[in-house]
Specification:
The structure is a homodimer of 189-residue chains. The first copy, chain A, is built from nine helices and no strands. The interface between A and B is large, with 43 and 45 residues. The first copy, chain A, binds a DNA duplex (30 and 30 nucleotides) through helix 3.
DNA sequence: CCAGTTCTGGACTGGTTAGTCCATAACTCA
DNA sequence: TGAGTTATGGACTAACCAGTCCAGAACTGG
């Protein structure tokens, strides 16, 4: 058996970044293949179709990027950890504003693509659970007001993060976005 | 001179709704023409190109939809007025979740389309100014804590609104979104 | 009713799209 | 080394894309 000349995860990552930056519909297969350095045959053999590739990329994004975000939520003080999740989605001079791939998929696809919608919902649920645990941790330590529903606060945080990410795509400056994150976090106590 | 057989604003509205629901890239000219009940010639004669049409639709959305939002911000108590702007972007059973056309354009186009980005920035600025005035009004009446920067709070509200709209596109229930709006508003005082 | 103007439907184009298919190169294992 | 298997490159297709163009219909003003 002849071995593959590429790493599936590697090409998936590279293709994901293109969809992330340019959007699903706006990205042609040709652009995708060039970025992935892959032949058409290998692409279809490995991923099935452009649509299936997008779903695979979305799943990987949720597992890798949001998975990391979830892990980071357990380190240090709860408030600081939550702030860090906001901070890392806010672009810096070196890392330009790509926003959040899952959010892009939500806007572009979730409404008329049931499979994409389902993945997005799973991703949001996972994000919410991460925040929920962090909020509970903060309530135990007294950093966050204990009388409020942790679930509601977690959903508020998911929503707020999405808002900031939208504005980052619109070109808002880092400083303004950090200020918004501060106001958002202030609401917890 | 033979008169037009359509109202430019009317067909603009109808076409906008299609772009709003399905996205710019995903909508073919054919779909657009069918929804607008217009011939290709009339479309190109009136709007120039698909891209120019999108810009016109975006401008109209900002003027009409966001303009109305801005007006509503001046009625009644400041907090209630702000809450109403959130409420009216949250889908009901009768009005399904189309989100915000300007947000869709932000995600899909702002990054690589300078003209769309410019319009989006103008729209966001206008929204921010509306909220800023409402916040100042609320601070004068004591509904909103007076010590905080009205501009920062206004940007926080713009961001929060966008977050809620993203989640509405993901299919979040009205009840949950209203709860998030409440938590958001609580942060003002 | 007619001249002049403008709107409209539809044919047409050149380019691009996602996706298929196959001959052949490349590799493994015995 | 050679048989067997799999990956690969690239030609190919049919559909669709935005956009152009023009002949003729439809209307106005005189």
């Amino acid at each position: 058996m002849r071995p593959r000349e590429f790493e599936p995860e590697d090409v998936l990552d590279r293709g994901m970044r293109v969809l992330w930056a340019r959007g699903y519909e706006a990205t042609s297969l040709e652009e995708l293949l060039e970025a992935m350095d892959l032949s058409k045959s290998s692409f279809y053999e490995t991923f099935g179709s452009k649509h299936d590739f997008m779903l695979a990329a979305l799943e990987r994004y949720i597992n890798v990027v949001l998975g990391q975000l979830g892990k980071d939520l357990h380190k240090g003080s709860a408030r600081e950890a939550i702030f860090r999740t906001f901070d890392c989605m806010i672009p810096t001079r070196d890392a330009p504003a790509n926003g959040c791939f899952m959010q892009n998929c939500t806007i572009e696809l979730a409404q008329h693509d049931p499979e994409a919608r389902e993945k997005v919902r799973q991703g949001l649920k996972r994000l919410e659970e991460g925040y929920s645990r962090a909020v509970l941790r903060g309530q135990e330590s007294g950093e966050i007001a204990g009388k409020r529903d942790a679930r509601a606060l977690a959903q508020y945080l998911v929503s707020s993060l999405n808002g900031i990410v939208v504005l980052s795509r619109a070109g808002f400056e880092r400083k303004k976005l950090l200020k918004i994150a501060e106001v958002t976090l202030d609401a917890l106590k």
